[in-house]
Automatic annotation (TrEMBL):
Coiled coil: none
Pfam families: ADH_zinc_N
GO-annotated molecular function: metal ion binding
Lineage of source species: Bacteria, Bacillati, Actinomycetota, Actinomycetes, Micromonosporales
Named cofactor requirement(s): Zn(2+)
Keywords assigned: Metal-binding, Zinc
Protein name (Swiss-Prot/TrEMBL): Zinc-binding dehydrogenase
InterPro entries noted in UniProt: ADH-like_C (IPR013149), NAD(P)-bd_dom_sf (IPR036291)
Protein family per UniProt: Belongs to the zinc-containing alcohol dehydrogenase family.
Superkingdom to which the source organism belongs: Bacteria
Domain called Alcohol dehydrogenase-like C-terminal: residue spans: 10-77
Length: 130
């Protein structure tokens, strides 16, 4: 893991000419990553919170209000699933960097436990396969 929020912030600033990201996706579900995403977006940017949070995360309105940040949340739905799967199969959507663990279907229970405890397991996304 990167050391401290200044490392990703410096990378995002360098890549965006100092402006910040248009969109930051929080997919881990920890207070730290939510706050990091909120700090990485440019004025008028968006934080897409798709991580499943088990603990409260602080919303720093004292920093966000003047930057006109939009925060969206939501559960995964099945509306976009077929299109996303087609994009993955066609090689148009590479999610390999998000997969931290792979399990066989007969390891489902262990996979679930690993995914349920990302702080200790380091799990971001797990893949189950035959």
């Amino acid at each position: 893991m990167l050391a401290g929020p200044e490392v990703p912030a410096n990378i995002v600033r360098a890549l965006t000419g100092g402006l910040g990201a248009d969109v930051a996706m929080e997919a881990v579900g920890t207070p730290h990553t939510f706050e990091l995403c909120a700090s990485l977006v440019r004025p008028g940017g968006r934080v897409a919170n798709i991580g499943v949070h088990g603990k409260p995360a602080t919303l720093h309105l004292e920093d966000l209000w003047i930057r006109n940040i939009t925060i969206t949340t939501g559960l995964v739905d099945t509306f976009s699933t077929p299109k996303l799967l087609d994009m993955i199969v066609a090689g148009r959507l590479d999610l390999g960097h998000m997969v931290t663990h792979r399990f066989r279907l007969d390891e489902f229970e262990h996979a679930y436990n690993v995914f349920a405890d990302p702080v200790h397991s380091g799990a971001l996304k797990v893949v189950l396969s035959r």
